[in-house]
């Protein structure tokens, strides 16, 4: 195992960087999409229920099946991987964003409007910062979930550590097959831990002391 990692150390680091970069970029895109959707629907009960139902149903779809279906319209490569990872990343963030924004005290918002803030300014400077810890919690859930989904995306030739896992599984019993699988799995776990720590640090730096939990 040690020899396997030592001989391929450069390749493993490059694949790890690809994996982390793919997840982070999809996570950022998913956050923008989820917050925008939450902003449109959190004040309307019917739309809030719809958003919650969509997130619940979306999480029941097997990622491997969805990736396979996307091969038909999107072919192989990075694009289907980005679409699938972003789709799954949106779901927890959207649910948390709706909950967080709906939980902001209306009196606080009205006070902001009363001192001259417009609706957009009140949303960006009052509602969004107050809901940010809840949104960030959704981002942490999405980050952990999509780390594994990004590995599955290697099925459609997506970049990242999934190539080691699928390569090892495809020739299980052959030379270095088990080492390849174990290397990919452990590296994904390490990246998930690193990304979660980064998000915790971001939360500490971007959350007001008055609303920290």
UniProtKB/TrEMBL annotation:
It comes from Rothia kristinae. It is a multi-pass membrane protein. GO terms for biological process: glycine betaine transport; transmembrane transport. The chain crosses the membrane at residues 20-42, 54-72, 78-98, 149-169, 181-202. The lineage of its organism: Bacteria, Bacillati, Actinomycetota, Actinomycetes, Micrococcales. Residues 16-199 form the ABC transmembrane type-1 domain. GO terms for cellular component: plasma membrane. Its main location: membrane. Gene3D superfamilies: MetI-like. It is found in: Cell membrane; Membrane. Belongs to the binding-protein-dependent transport system permease family. SUPFAM superfamilies: MetI-like (SSF161098). Keywords: Membrane, Transmembrane, Transmembrane helix, Transport. This is ABC transporter permease. The keyword Transmembrane helix applies. It holds the Pfam family BPD_transp_1.
